[in-house]
Amino acid sequence: EAGVAQSPRYKIIEKRQSVAFWCNPISGHATLYWYQQILGQGPKLLIQFQNNGVVDDSQLPKDRFSAERLKGVDSTLKIQPAKLEDSAVYLCASSFNQQPNTEAFFGQGTRLTVV
Amino acid sequence: GDSVTQMEGPVTLSEEAFLTINCTYTATGYPSLFWYVQYPGEGLQLLLKATKADDKGSNKGFEATYRKETTSFHLEKGSVQVSDSAVYFCALITDSWGKLQFGAGTQVVVTP
Lengths: 115, 112
Description:
heterodimer, A: mainly beta, 7-stranded mixed sheet, 4-stranded antiparallel sheet, 11 strands, about 0% helix, globular, B: mainly beta, 6-stranded mixed sheet, 12 strands, about 50% strand
């Protein structure tokens, strides 16, 4: 079974530039999550999709971050404009459904450095 | 709000030593509890889970028991190997949408 695919693996940009990350979840998984993991901290949920609808985006800084999940499959997360404090690893995860007992599978993440 | 607190690392051990990583939580209701592991260069993987009080999760020689009275979910392994070197995250889910809330992670380094 193919895992969660993310690209790019690494990205370095200057502050005020824009950047986009892509995620391809495991086939058939209805639930998709984007997490932000700042160095030395645990992952923090940014946004959760159920199919192509947003379930929770309460922690997403909506003035600069946006995300979409077209056709309930792939997803993109965009930052515009980036700030220094956005330097982090951005993790995508998917699960078959949103039930708490359902395992979430994580991608390898995209490491973003804002200089 | 809900939160997870786990012991700070790094934890450095010799091979075959006993490992304990403490994890306590604060939550309303009855959360499901998880341990995730992140090996170098890899994504987070579910190590084990427990969904109700007194449940014991186990996998790859690791164990953790859901203790409601002490709001704890400590991870243990009786004899670690070099290949167990990784960052371990304790996490919980309290809502019906499967939102994971993570602790800060504990790095474990096992030396030969």
